Amino acid sequence: MHPPAPRLRIGFILAPRFTLCAFANFVDVLRLAADEGDRSRPILCRWAVLSPDLAPVQSSCGIRITPDERLGDPSRFDYIVVVGGLVDEIERLHPDHAAFLRRAAQAGVPLVGVCTGAFILHRAGLMSGYKACVSWFHHEDFLTEFDGLLPVSDRIFVVDRDRLSCSGGASSAHLAAFLVDRHIGPAAARKSLAIMIIDEALGADRPQPGLPLDLSTQEPLVKRALLLMQQSMDSPPTVADIAQRLGVGRRKLERHFTEALRVTPREADRRIRLAQARHLLSRTDRSVARIAAETGFCDASHLIRAFREAWDTTPEAWRRAHRAEPTTP
Question: Is 152 helix (H, G, I), strand (E, B) or coil?
Fold first, then answer.
């Protein structure tokens, strides 16, 4: 008796210095959904790492993965997943990989960008007219690399027709669970995540965690607004602009901030920019005027006034006191 045909077939392309955890999270969801219990038989799901020459691919942490198959015909897969990693290694992707991705697109095979995999798909000319999810950590890198393209950095993954992308890390597991849910069923997706000690599958609109903040909340709308503020510190958007980008009214946004944080969006934005200014004072030798420009204050005087109101000292005095503090070995 022949085994049942797999319901979900994934081909992986690993970029040089790819992020191992993003790949491992994605493939482990498939592994756990593919069989009953935790026996890891590739029954309901099948997957393979692809390359032109089967040479081992080194991850960013140094561990190497040996590919399973040569590139071949992309239509034997339901999805082709590109796992990126270090930004400065993107140009080293084998040209045969790019040609394979273009053949996959022509054949109608959906393409998935994981971590900086969205960068690779863009570089191959395969994301024109599509939204791309990028980690908040790589937001500025993306803007530098692809002038005129606006990445989505306030969600953990994006599904835009036959292009899917996620920010990497734990979000890879949630995007994989989305595909398992779509092709195998929600029970299989829940089982995979439960075995991986992940409480629940998160939807695409769940906000990325972003930088650590004193303004901590689990309210999704407020978290996404805070992330937008973090990404625009040098040119702070108005509250109306943020509300428009999030698809809500200004009053609704302000109400959510008041309920979640007991501050207005404007005050939250000011705190974020002041916290960044203090971070730059402690970690760099940049002038107060330059830090003011990088954190969205009109000039050095504006930053000095806001800093004094917040901490009853000037930026330079705070810097001297901070650097004078003894350190423990």
Answer: strand
**What does the alpha-carbon distance between residue 135 and residue 153 come to, in Å, rounded to a whole number?**
6
Q: What is the pLDDT of residue 327?
A: 39
Return the pLDDT at 326.
41
Which CATH fold would you assign to the domain 8-195? Answer: Rossmann fold (3.40.50)
Tokens read off for 191: 């089982």
124 sits in which H/E element: none
Strand 64-65 to 69-70 pairing: unpaired
Collapsing DSSP states into helix, strand and coil, what is residue 13? strand
Strands 157-160 and 163-166: antiparallel
Q: How far apart are CA 112 and CA 245, in angstroms?
A: 24
Task: Please tell me whether residue 8 adopts helix, strand or coil conformation.
Answer: strand
Tokens for 64? 């190497």
Q: Which residues of the chain have a pLDDT value below 50?
A: 325-329
Supply the pLDDT for residue 328.
Answer: 35
Angstrom distance (rounded) from CA 173 to CA 28: 8
Question: Of the candidates 42, 49, 44, 39, which has an alpha carbon nearest to the alpha carbon of residue 14?
Answer: 49
pLDDT at position 183 is 96
Q: What is the pLDDT of residue 262?
A: 92
- The structural domains of the chain, with segments of one domain joined by +, span 8-195, 210-329
In the chain, where do the E strands start and end? 8-14, 45-51, 57-58, 64-65, 69-70, 79-83, 111-114, 157-160, 163-166
The pTM of the full predicted model, rounded to 2 decimals, is 0.70
Question: Would you state the pLDDT for residue 221?
Answer: 92
Long-range contacts of 308-311 (CB under 8 A, 24+ apart): 310/271, 310/274, 311/278
Residue whose C-alpha is closest to residue 23's, from 145, 142, 117, 160: 117
The Cα 100–Cα 89 span in angstroms is 19
Six token digits for residue 21? 């955890």
CATH of domain 210-329: 1.10.10.60
What pLDDT is stored for residue 284 in this prediction? 83
Six-digit token string for 187: 């029970």
Q: What is the structure's pLDDT at 241?
A: 94
